[in-house]
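Final report, closing paragraph on structural work. Over the funding period we assembled a curated collection of sequence-structure pairs, and we close with a single example.
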Amino acid sequence: MSKRKLTRQQAWRIEKIQKERLDRASRHKVHVEDLLESGRLGQEQVGRIVARFGKQVEVIAVDAVGQPVAESIRCHLRSNLSSLVTGDQVIFQTTDDAGIVTACESRRNVLERPDSRGVIKAMAANIDQLVIVTALEPAPQPELLDRYLVATEVAGIPPLIVINKVDLLKGSEINRNFLAAIKNLYQVIGYTVVEATTKEPGGLDELSKHLIDKSSVFIGQSGVGKSSLVQTLLPDEQIQVGHLHQQTRLGRHTTSTARLYSYSKGGSIIDSPGIRDFGLEQISRTDVEQGFIDIREFSNQCRFRDCRHRQEPGCAVTDAIQKGKLSKRRLESFHRILDTLTGGNA
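Its predicted structure, as stored:
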């Protein structure tokens, strides 16, 4: 099928938009080079990206242990540093009213996910732990939790599972049973699971202990109370907090860009955009098997190297399920995630 031919007006409009973009990029590059050559820039400082805003970033100077030593400042980027994200450690210089990031240190790790077009984009860098927030409302999605856990294994970032809104346990046997099942399943696998609530005194004490002196990314589907947790942990910050839709009981997106906050007890917290699904299209079947650490323990014992853990003879995974050594729900989740992979790697 041939492409639709553009009208003269449409072609002119597209050409005009492209020219405007090129002009803006050229002016930005000239401005940055002028600052670098002006001799007005101060000494080089070590900093960390607080947030990204197009061709500019917000940077905060940090000491040897990563704690802030000054107020954050908006900085321009050198043309060879276009891919910086929240959490990146950088070298920057400032004038009285502007700053320039001149270099970026090597990343320890990076958290990535596909955007709406399927293009893999970095979300945050140099993370000590991924705080995966789930809750008793909106309706829990265990498969989404498993997707997050696979992402942590692939990225090499330790996870911390937080079950929020445990105040809803009161008067609900269904909620109590769900909480007990989740905690038992994931703690047996080897994950740390903590309970949290912003509605009761001391409801975040256990969570707070796990955040000290670490760089933590908070992530979870919209509506689980992620931003409310961060707001309570960082009472001096102004964080937009949303509420569940009254009819759908789904969350509204309140965080538009990943942002890093300094934690008063040491360390930092990164609040990330809420998402209702977490794509894993960029990874392979092997990555998924490595990400399900409980299945991995038995898959190495399968008779066939390419065993798909369905009905193959000599499958150690299905045998473990029959013997009660492995969760059937986790294997079902494993298969559903594999079914979503693209590129023929599943």
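Residues 309 and 318 are 6 Å apart (CA to CA). Residues 243-255 have pLDDT under 50 and may be disordered. We thank the funder for supporting this effort.
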